[in-house]
Amino acid sequence: MSHTSSGRLAPLMLSVLRIVTALIFLLHGTQKLFGFPATEQQPPLFSLMGLGGVLELVGGLLMLIGLFTRPVAFVLSGMMAVAYWMFHAPQNLYPTLNGGDAAILYCFVFLYFAVVGGGSLSLDALRGTGGKRI
C-alpha cells in the first residue's frame, strides 16, 4: 500500500478505532449497571464504581456515534487515569500484575481522541465540528 493511499485511509481508520474502542468500553458500563454480559460485579449506582458505570455507558455511547468526541474523550481519559491510580496502582507497581493495563490503554486512546476528534465517520464530522481533522 502506498503512502498516499494509506494517508487517505487514516480518517476512516481513526473512526474504526473509535467505534471498536467505544463498543468494548460500553460493555464495561452495561456490565456494571445492568449485569450484562453476566458478572458478579454490580456496584451500587451511587458509588464510585456506579458513577464509573454511568460514564462508561453514556461516554461509550457518545464515543460510538462520534458525538462531542473531544470533550467526552477528555473526560473518559481522566476517568481512566483516576481508575488506574486509585484501584490498580496501589495493588502492584506493574500494570500486567495489577490488572491496570486496559485502564492505561483506554486513558491514552481517549486522550488521543480528545486531541484529534472522531474521524470521518462521526456525527461530529457531519456537524462540521472537527471530526475530520488528523
From TrEMBL:
Topology of the protein relative to the lipid bilayer: Multi-pass membrane protein
Keyword Coiled coil: no
Cell membrane among keywords: yes
Transmembrane segments: 12-30, 45-65, 72-91, 103-126
Subcellular location: Cell membrane
Main location: membrane
Pfam families, alphabetized: DoxX
Protein name: DoxX family protein
Natural source organism: Salipiger mangrovisoli
